[in-house]
Design a protein that fits this description.
103 residues; alpha+beta; 3-stranded antiparallel sheet; 2 helices; 3 strands; 24% strand
């Protein structure tokens, strides 16, 4: 499976007076796991359970590997295009001028 985005660990404070999260130093609640991705240039977030975090982290890793492999393939394709000997032949032909066609 492939899943875009990232998973981050969040720790929060609650609104209750006297809670340990309000102490100095604070004992924040959590960890909570949040998956974030972009949809139509906007961030979309979802809270995950610890089990979901374990499963989905591997999917996110697969997405990053896939994007890296695709970038490498694109580089190879561009390099192959640049080294194509037909580019030199076409450049020589255009230096001679337009081709004449018979009526």
């Amino acid at each position: 499976m492939v899943l875009p985005g990232s998973i981050t660990e969040r720790r929060t404070r609650c609104g209750r007076d006297g809670c340990a999260c309000r102490a100095d130093p604070p004992g924040l609640h959590g960890p909570y796991w949040q998956w974030t991705r972009k949809v139509a240039a906007r961030s979309v977030c979802r809270w995950l359970s610890p089990g979901q975090r374990e499963d989905y982290q591997a999917w996110i890793h697969n997405d990053r590997r896939l994007r890296d492999l695709l970038a490498r393939l694109e580089e190879l394709g561009a390099a192959a295009l640049d080294t194509d000997p037909r580019w030199q032949r076409d450049a020589r032909a255009s230096a001679r001028g337009p081709r004449q066609t018979s009526p």
